[in-house]
Specification:
Length: about 500
Amino acid sequence: MDDVAQTLASDWKYVSEGGATIVFSYVGSPNPSYDGMVLRLRKAVNLGRPVDGMVNEDEPDDPIIEYQKRCMERLLSRENLPLLRSVRLERTWLEQLAEKHDKERPEARSRKDQIDFTRQKGVLATDLVGGDWIAVEVKPKWAFLPSHSHLSEETKAKKVQTCRFCMHSFMRNKKNPEYVNHYCPLDLFSGEADRVRKAIDALWDAWEHSNGGVNNLKLFAHGKVVLPGQIERLVDEKTDKEAVHPEQIKQMFKQALFNTLMKTSVLKAISRLQRTLDPLDIEGLSKLWRETELQSPLYKSEHASYSEQPVSNERIPTTPLGASSIYLPASEPSISDWVEFITNYQSNAAKEMDHSQPKADHLRYYLLAYLLSATFKDCSIIVKLDFLRPGRQSTPTVYPVSVIDLDPKSLDRLQKWEQLDREIGLSKLEQQSRTRKTVLEKKLSRNEKISDADAVWLDHDANLIDGVAIIAFFKENTEELLHTFNRQLRLEEVARLKDTRIDEYFTRK
C-alpha cells in the first residue's frame, strides 16, 4: 500500500468536497502511483481545537472501496465506475495539507468541518476532472413518476403528473425567488433527442443564472472550475479565443454534451435502478412501516386501547419512519446486508413480488431498496469532452461516462425525506389552491354562480389556503357562499386549524 506522506502537501490541489469527504487531485512530479488520481479524505466536525484520536494500526480500508467492489459493480458496468484503492495516511502530513489548502475551501464548509486527522487510510480514485480535457458533472436527479398505488388522495394527482425535481424547484423558488431552475430530469432520461436537448438547455440556463452555483451542472477545464463568465476556457489552446463569439462556444459545448449523452447507456441504467428500487414511493413505505409496527405483538399488548375503538391507523402513534424501536428494530445496513439485499433484488423471487400489496415480512427489503434508490437519485455523472475547436473539422472522441457519489444512505435520513416529500407536495397543492381561489373571486365579482365542482373543491381543500385569506374571501361574499354551500363548508375544521371562530362570524352575519 502506498504511503501518501511520501508526497508533498503542495503536490495536491483542492478540487471539491461534499458532506462527508474532501477531494484533492495530484499535480506533483510524474509518479505512476498518483498520476491521474485524486485523494479522497474523510471529514470530521470542526471543534475549534485539536482532537487526539486513538491511532488504529489495523484500521480497515475505507468502506466505500469494499462497497463499490461488492455492490456497485453488480449494478453498474465497471467502465462506468472510477478505480478505487487504499493509501496510507499520516497525521502530520494531513495537518500540513489542511494548512495549505483550507483557504481554498468554501467558508461555510471550513467553519463546519475539517479533514479527519485521525484517519490512517484514505482513498485514491481515478481523477475524472483534473486532466487536459473538459469535465462536465451532471446531477440527473429523479428519473421517473411514481405509481399511484400508494399515494394519498391529497398528493396523487400531482405526483403522478409532475416530476419530483420540478415540484422541489417550485418550492425552492417560492422560498427564494433568486433560485430559478427549469431543468426537468424526465427530459434528460427520456432518450428522445428533442427532450434531451431541452434538458441540456435548461441545465445551462440554470448554471448561467446562478453563476455556477446550481449543483445540477458543473464544468471543469484542466481540473479547474469554469464559471459562466469564463467559457472561453472550453476552447482549445490553438484557437484564437478572442475571435470566437461566446454563443458559438455555448452551442458547440451543448452539441458535444448531447452527442455523449445520446450514446451512453448509463442514464438508462440509473433510471431503471431508481424505478425498480422504489416501487412504493416514500408514502407507501411509510404506510408499510406503520402497519408492520401495529402488527407487532408487543405494540398490540402495550397499546390495547387503540384496538378497542375504531381509530384510523394514521392517528395511532407509531415510531418515526426508519427509527429503531422495541416494537420494530431497524439496524443500519452493513456491507454484508447490502450484498445480501442485492442478491435478493436480482433474484427471480423479487421480480415476482406484488408491490401493489406489500407484505410486512418484506419491510426490510423495501427499506433497503428505497435507500439504494435514493443513492441513484442523488448520484452524479462525469462526462469527459475534448476541448472545443471552433472553425476546424474534427471527430470528437466519445468517452465512457462515469458515475460518482454512490455512497450508501442511512436509515436516519428517511424521516427527513418523508417530511420533505410532504412539504414539496403541499407546496404545489397550496399554489394550485390559491390560483383556483383567485378564479373563484373573479367569478363572484362578476356575480357568477359557483359550480358544484367549485363548491366541492373548496370544501375539500380549504385547509390548504391561509386562514386569513379564507376569512377575507368570505367577508365580501357571505350570502352567496352560504346559499351555494348550504352551510356544508367545514367551518369547524377550518376554525380549529386556524384558531379562528369563523362559525361565529357567519352567525353574526
